[in-house]
C-alpha cells in the first residue's frame, strides 16, 4: 500500500481534486440508484470482507451471527489477515453464533488494519455484535462483496470519528476526500503528512487490504467529525463509518455538555450502502422520550429537501456537495423529499446524565436509511440474545398504509400490540413499532407490498440500531414457532436441528388477497371475488378472497380513531387519525380528500403523572413503582439506578435483588464466610448474630430505644415511635419539630392550641396549661438541685428541711399571681408547717438521716435525670 501526493496542511482551503474516473463513477452510480437498477439492499451473499471499527476498551468482544436460509447446512470458512482458514458449520435454516478469537481482534488509529473474511459456496448472511464495554455496544449489518460499489459518503456523530476501508481483490486506487460541515478540528497524520478538511488522501490497497482513519482518544473534543467525507475506488470496496464515542445533542437535556461528556460513551457505526434517493421515510421510535435525529448528506450542490413534522412543512437547502444537516425528529416518522439524491442516516440520540431527572435508557446508534425505491417485500433478520445485558428490543416497520394488514411474521399475521402512526407529510405510508424478544424473524407481505424494517434496542447507557436489509434468497417454509408478546418468533438453534412442522391453523379475520388460509380449509385465497357466492363449494361465502379484477373505485374515509397523546410526555395536544380505507381506492380511483389527522390543544397527561415528575425513589407512568434500595433516586422511567444500598444488587433492575449467599455489604463484596464462618444474618452489614432488644447495626452498636416495639436489626426501622420522636425509617432518632407532638410526631400543636406547644410529648399548650407546665418543669429540675445541694453539704443536710422551702419559693417567685383561692390555702398551710419545723435550732450533735433513707430518696432522682 502506498500514499500518493496528498494535499497537506498548507492547502486545506482547496477543494478536493479528483481523478478522471471519480466524476464518471459518481454520476453513473447515482443514475443507477435513481432508476432502481442496482440491487444494493439484497445483502445475502457468499463472501464477506470487513474491518472492525475502532474500539477503545481493553478486551472487547466481537460476536458474529451467521444465517443459513436455505434448507441445507452451510459450511463457512473464516480467516483473519490472510491466516489459515477455519471451518464453521451453520445448521440448515438457522443461526450460528461465532465469537471471534481474542487474538484476532486488533485495531489501528491511522494506517493499515486487519481484515476479516468469511466465505462459502452457498449464500448466507452476516451480522456483527460489537461489545466494547458494559455501556458500549453496537450492531452492524455486513454487506457481502457482491453488493459493494465504488462510491460512499461517510457519516459520524460529532466526535471520535472512525472510518474503515477494505477491499477484495486486485489493486484498488482509493481517494478519501475529507469533509465536514460541522465545526471541525479533526486531522490525521499519515506518512508524515497532515490531512484535514478539504484535503485528499490517496491510497493503493491490495487484495484483502484494509485502512483505518480514526481519532478515538480525543474524547474532550465534542465537534470532530468526518460526515460528508467521500470515499471512491477504482474497484468496488467496503466502508464502515461511525464514532467510537458517539455523541449527539438532545432537546431533553438541559445543555449539550451535560448531555454528552460523561453519560454518552456508546460506539455507533454502520456499514455503508450507496442508497441515495429522493424519497425517504424515517422509522418511528418507541421506548424513549428523547426523540431522534436524522442526518442528511448532499450528493450535489444546491440540494433542496422538503419534509413535514408536527408543526408543519419545512425546507432545507444543502448548498454544496457533501454538505450535511441534522434534523430533529421529535414527534414521529417523517417523509423527506429532495430534488437531488441525498443520503439519510437515522440517529438515536444521547441520553442525559444518569444523575439527571431526565435520564433514560439508551444512547447513540447510527444506521443507514434506504429510500422507498429500495424497499422489498421480504426480509430475514435476528434480534440478538447475547446473555449479558438487560435490553429492551423493538422492531419498527415502514409500510404502505393500505398494505399493513398483509404483514406476516414467521408466516403468521402480525398479532403484537403495536404502536401505529401515520407518516408526517403523507397518508400513504404508515409505521408499526412494537417491543419484542430475541429470536429469528422472517417477515414478508402476503400481497408483495414493499416495506422497510428497522431493529433497535436500549439498555442502561447504550443503544443499538440497524436496518434489516436481507432479502430472502430462498424463503424457508413455515416452522414451529413460539409466541412472545404477540409476535411469533423462532429461537436460536446453534447445535442441533429440530423437526420442522407447520403451525396449527387458526381462523383469522379476512383481508382481500392476504395470503392466509382464513377458513383453515387447506387452500389460500380460493374465493375469486366478493360476489356473495360460494365459489369453492365449501358452504361458505366470500370467506377467503384472493385476486380478482377490480373496477376503478374512489376511496372513502374510515372512522376517526380515539384521541391519543404523542410520545412526548409534556405534549400539550391530543391527536386522532383516520384512514382512507372505507373503502380503499382501487385501480385509478381517487384518494380521500381532506386531512387524515386532527389535533386539539389540550394537556395530554393531566390525568396521570409523567415519569419525569415522579417523586424520588418512584418511577413509571403514574409513579406507581418504587426503588427504595437505590443509593440515589432511580431513573424516573425504568427504575434503574447507579448504585445499590449495601445488601442489594442489580442496579439496572432497581436493586430489587438481595446479595447472594455468603456475601454482604456494598456491592455484595463482603465475605460472610470469613466474617461469620457461615452465611450472614443480615446482608446489609454482615451481622452474624441477632442483636438484643432495642439494639441494631454492626456489632449492635446502634440504639432504637425511642421505638415502641423492637426495631429491625439490619437498618433500625420500626413501625411506631414513642411520643416526642419520629423517623421510624431510621430508629426514631429525630425529636418532634416545631408544631408537632405525640407518637410519631403525628399530632399538630396548632390544631390543639392555636400556637406551638411548649412540650412535645403531651402537646402542652402555652397559656391554659401554664401551671401544669411549671409544675412539670419544677418536678424535673428540683430533684437534681436537691441532690447537688445535699452532696455539697457532705450529706449533713436533711431533704425534709429543704424540699418544702424549695417548692414554696419556686411557686411564689414564678406563679403566685396564677394560684387559685383553693390552691392558695394549701400553699399557706404548707408554709406555716415548714416554718414551725425550721425554727428548731440545728446542731452538729443532731442525729443525721439514715443512709438507707438517703438512697431511697436521692438515688432514683439522680438516675431519672
TrEMBL record:
Q: List the residue ranges of the region (Disordered).
A: 478-505, 525-544, 830-851
Top-level taxon of origin: Eukaryota
Give TM regions: 770-790
Q: Where is the composition biased (Polar residues)?
A: 485-500
* Record's compositionally biased regions (Acidic residues): 525-543
Source organism (scientific name): Biomphalaria glabrata (Bloodfluke planorb)
Q: Please report the name of this protein according to its UniProt entry.
A: Uncharacterized protein LOC106078928 isoform X1
* Coiled-coil parts of chain: none
Gene3D superfamilies recorded: Thrombospondin type-1 (TSP1) repeat
What positions does the domain IgGFc-binding protein N-terminal occupy?
142-457
* Keyword set, alphabetical order: Membrane, Transmembrane, Transmembrane helix
Q: Does the keyword Membrane apply?
A: yes
Record-linked PROSITE patterns: TSP1
Q: Read off the InterPro entries from this record.
A: IgGFc-bd_N (IPR035234), TSP1_rpt (IPR000884), TSP1_rpt_sf (IPR036383)
Amino acid at each position: 500500500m502506498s500514499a500518493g501526493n496528498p494535499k497537506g496542511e498548507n492547502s486545506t482551503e482547496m477543494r478536493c481534486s479528483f481523478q478522471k474516473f471519480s466524476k464518471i463513477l459518481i454520476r453513473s452510480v447515482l443514475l443507477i440508484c435513481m432508476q432502481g437498477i442496482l440491487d444494493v439492499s439484497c445483502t445475502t451473499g457468499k463472501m464477506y470482507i470487513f474491518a472492525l471499527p475502532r474500539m477503545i476498551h481493553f478486551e472487547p468482544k466481537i460476536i458474529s451471527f451467521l444465517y443459513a436460509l436455505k434448507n441445507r447446512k452451510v459450511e463457512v470458512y473464516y480467516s483473519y489477515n490472510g491466516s489459515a482458514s477455519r471451518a464453521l458449520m451453520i445448521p440448515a435454516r438457522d443461526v450460528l453464533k461465532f465469537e471471534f478469537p481474542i487474538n484476532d481482534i486488533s485495531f489501528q488509529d491511522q494506517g493499515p488494519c486487519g481484515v476479516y473474511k468469511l466465505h462459502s459456496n452457498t449464500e448466507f448472511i452476516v451480522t456483527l455484535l460489537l461489545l466494547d464495554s458494559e455501556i458500549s455496544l453496537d450492531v452492524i449489518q455486513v454487506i457481502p462483496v457482491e453488493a459493494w460499489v465504488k462510491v460512499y459518503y461517510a457519516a459520524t456523530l460529532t466526535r471520535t470519528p472512525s472510518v474503515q476501508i477494505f477491499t477484495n481483490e486486485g489493486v484498488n486506487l482509493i481517494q478519501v476526500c475529507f469533509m465536514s460541515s460541522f465545526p471541525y478540528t479533526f486531522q490525521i497524520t499519515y506518512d508524515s503528512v497532515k490531512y484535514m478538511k478539504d484535503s485528499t488522501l490517496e491510497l493503493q490497497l491490495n487484495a484483502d487490504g484494509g485502512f483505518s482513519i480514526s481519532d478515538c482518544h480525543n474524547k474532550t473534543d465534542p465537534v470532530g467529525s468526518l460526515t460528508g467525507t467521500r470515499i471512491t475506488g477504482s474497484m468496488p470496496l467496503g466502508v464502515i463509518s461511525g464514532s467510537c464515542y458517539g455523541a449527539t445533542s438532545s432537546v431533553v437535556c438541559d445543555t449539550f455538555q451535560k448531555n454528552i461528556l460523561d453519560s454518552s460513551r456508546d460506539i455507533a457505526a454502520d456499514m455503508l450502502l450507496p442508497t441515495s434517493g429522493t424519497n425517504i421515510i424515517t422509522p418511528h421510535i418507541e421506548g424513549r422520550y428523547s426523540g431522534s435525529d436524522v442526518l442528511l448528506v448532499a450528493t450535489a450542490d444546491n440540494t433542496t429537501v422538503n419534509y413535514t413534522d408536527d408543526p408543519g412543512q419545512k425546507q432545507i437547502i444543502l448548498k454544496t456537495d457533501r454538505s450535511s444537516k441534522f434534523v430533529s425528529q421529535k414527534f414521529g416518522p417523517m417523509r423527506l423529499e429532495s430534488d437531488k439524491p441525498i443520503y439519510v442516516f437515522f440517529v438515536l440520540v444521547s441520553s442525559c446524565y444518569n444523575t439527571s431527572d431526565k435520564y433514560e435508557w439508551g444512547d447513540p446508534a447510527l444506521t443507514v436509511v434506504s429510500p422507498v425505491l429500495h424497499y422489498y417485500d421480504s426480509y430475514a433478520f435476528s434480534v440478538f440474545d447475547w446473555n449479558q445485558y438487560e435490553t429492551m428490543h423493538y422492531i419498527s416497520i415502514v409500510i404502505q398504509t393500505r398494505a399493513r394488514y398483509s404483514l406476516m411474521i414467521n408466516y403468521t399475521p402480525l398479532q403484537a400490540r403495536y404502536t401505529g402512526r401515520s407518516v408526517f407529510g403523507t397518508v400513504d405510508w404508515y409505521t408499526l413499532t412494537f417491543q419484542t424478544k430475541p429470536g429469528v424473524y422472517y417477515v414478508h407481505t402476503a400481497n408483495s407490498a414493499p416495506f422497510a424494517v428497522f431493529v433497535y434496542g436500549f439498555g442502561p447507557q447504550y443503544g443499538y440500531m440497524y436496518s434489516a436489509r436481507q432479502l430472502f434468497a430462498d424463503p424457508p417454509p413455515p416452522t414451529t414457532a413460539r409466541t412472545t408478546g404477540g409476535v411469533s418468533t423462532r429461537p436460536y438453534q446453534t447445535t442441533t436441528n429440530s423437526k420442522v412442522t407447520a403451525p396449527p391453523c387458526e381462523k383469522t379475520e379476512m383481508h382481500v388477497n392476504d395470503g392466509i388460509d382464513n377458513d383453515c380449509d387447506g387452500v389460500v385465497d380460493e374465493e375469486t371475488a366478493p360476489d356473495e357466492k360460494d365459489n369453492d363449494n365449501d358452504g361458505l361465502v366470500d370467506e377467503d378472497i384472493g385476486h380478482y379484477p377490480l373496477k376503478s373505485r374512489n376511496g372513502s374515509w374510515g372512522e376517526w380513531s380515539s384521541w391519543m397523546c404523542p410520545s412526548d410526555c409534556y405534549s400539550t395536544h391530543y391527536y386522532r387519525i383516520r384512514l382512507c380505507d372505507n373503502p380503499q381506492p382501487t385501480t385509478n380511483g381517487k384518494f380521500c380528500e381532506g386531512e387524515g389527522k386532527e389535533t386539539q390543544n389540550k394537556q395530554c397527561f393531566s390525568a396521570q403523572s409523567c415519569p419525569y415528575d415522579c417523586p424520588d425513589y418512584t418511577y413509571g407512568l403514574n409513579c406507581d413503582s418504587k426503588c427504595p434500595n437505590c443509593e440515589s433516586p432511580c431513573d424516573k422511567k425504568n427504575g434503574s439506578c447507579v448504585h445499590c444500598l449495601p445488601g442489594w444488587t442489580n442496579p439496572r433492575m432497581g436493586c430489587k435483588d438481595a446479595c447472594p449467599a455468603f456475601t454482604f455489604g456494598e456491592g455484595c463484596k463482603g465475605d460472610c464466610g470469613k466474617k461469620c464462618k457461615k452465611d450472614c444474618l443480615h446482608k446489609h452489614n454482615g451481622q452474624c448474630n441477632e442483636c438484643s432488644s432495642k439494639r441494631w447495626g454492626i456489632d449492635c452498636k446502634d440504639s432504637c430505644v425511642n421505638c415502641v416495639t423492637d426495631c429491625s436489626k439490619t437498618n433500625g426501622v420500626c413501625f411506631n415511635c414513642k411520643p416526642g420522636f419520629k423517623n421510624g425509617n431510621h430508629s426514631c432518632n429525630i425529636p418532634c419539630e416545631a408544631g408537632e407532638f405525640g407518637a410519631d410526631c403525628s399530632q399538630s400543636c396548632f390544631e390543639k392550641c392555636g400556637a406551638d406547644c411548649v412540650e412535645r410529648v403531651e402537646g402542652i399548650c402555652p397559656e391554659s396549661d401554664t401551671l401544669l407546665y411549671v409544675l412539670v418543669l419544677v418536678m424535673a429540675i428540683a430533684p437534681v438541685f436537691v441532690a447537688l445541694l445535699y452532696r455539697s453539704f457532705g450529706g449533713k443536710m436533711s431533704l425534709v428541711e429543704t424540699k418544702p422551702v424549695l417548692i414554696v419559693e419556686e411557686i411564689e417567685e414564678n406563679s403566685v399571681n396564677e394560684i387559685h383561692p383553693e390552691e392558695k390555702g394549701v400553699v399557706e398551710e404548707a408554709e406555716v408547717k415548714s416554718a414551725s419545723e425550721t425554727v428548731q435550732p440545728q446542731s452538729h450533735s443532731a442525729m443525721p438521716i439514715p443512709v438507707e433513707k438517703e438512697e431511697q430518696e436521692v438515688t432514683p432522682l439522680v438516675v431519672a435525670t
